[in-house]
Specification:
This protein has one domain. The protein is built from 12 helices and no strands. The chain has helices spanning 2-18, 24-45, 55-78, 81-88, 91-102, 110-126, 135-158, 164-188, 205-231, 234-241, 243-254, 262-280.
């Protein structure tokens, strides 16, 4: 899980640096397109053994995955690495809330409610437009966390019926198709770069290399996370996964972007602590 977090932090750093020339939609395209051939080749050489019959879980996972990718790269484009990844690590808070409403037998303990409040208070401390970024960018970060939580619930159900590789393929394929359409609309429809549309910018040789590395790192995130979940409890995996925020802060400092403000650091700590405690109590 440490390897997964490191891959995610470096991938995010590359995406952040590339966002100076490429729109967030084109970054979604790169992130999705690179991993697909590897997964499809794997499925060709070693066909999936699965029961199937619940295609709507695969479709739901794909749609949620594509939407969260849009949110991730849009937030990265406008906020720092550490803030974006902290919002991403808030997903256990939303899993607890969504599970309560979606699954009738799910109940929140008094301790879970307490740590939910701690985590959401941390989000409020980070959610400061004056500190960094505009209101809409922070809002997209929270939507990113909510989409990640719903995607996780969809994965949980989909993996009961489908090979995990098909679950990941649905995620990457949906991102590839959606970003291709968005780029076509932006490029040939002459629409500006935005959350949903983007103009294609032709990368040079070095940028192609960075795009490929970014896609391979994203594939590494999926692989290492799956291995961690197969061999360890979810709460422990989630706790170690919070290291993505630490890696992001270190990368930002290394790149000369400075350290987050004291209030933002407190908020990040509360989000991570609350998310871990909520997950550990499940």
């Amino acid at each position: 899980m440490l390897l997964s977090s490191l891959c995610f932090a470096v991938m995010s750093a590359i995406a952040k640096s590339m966002s100076a020339r490429f729109g967030s939609v084109e970054l979604v395209f790169f992130r999705s397109a690179v991993g697909l051939p590897f997964l499809l080749t794997s499925l060709y050489h070693k066909p999936a053994v699965q029961t199937g019959g619940k295609l709507y879980f695969i479709i739901l996972r794909g749609l949620l995955g594509a939407f969260t990718l849009y949110c991730l790269f849009f937030t990265l484009e406008h906020l720092g690495l550490s803030l974006t990844n902290t919002y991403g690590q808030a997903f256990p808070l939303f899993i607890a809330v969504f599970s309560f409403f979606i699954f009738p037998n799910e109940r929140l303990s008094s301790k879970q409610v307490l740590f939910l409040l701690v985590g959401f208070f941390g989000i409020l401390l980070i959610f400061q437009p004056d500190a960094q970024g505009e209101l809409v960018h922070h809002a997209t970060g929270i939507v990113y966390a909510m989409g990640t939580a719903l995607g996780y619930l969809a994965i949980k159900e989909a993996q009961k019926y489908y090979d995990s590789r098909w679950v990941v393929v649905s995620f990457m394929a949906a991102g590839f198709i959606a970003s291709s359409i968005s780029l076509a609309l932006g490029t040939w429809g002459d629409l500006p770069n935005s959350f949903f549309t983007g103009k294609w910018v032709m990368p040079n040789g070095f940028e192609w290399s960075m795009a490929i590395i970014m896609g391979l790192l994203a594939l590494g995130v999926q692989y290492f996370t799956t291995q961690a979940l197969l061999n360890e409890e979810t709460s422990i995996v989630g706790a170690v996964g919070n290291s993505a925020v630490l890696f992001s802060i270190l990368i930002e400092i290394f790149l000369g972007h400075g350290f987050p403000s004291a209030i933002v650091c407190v908020g990040m700590g509360l989000v991570i602590w609350g998310s871990y405690q909520v997950g550990a109590k499940r």
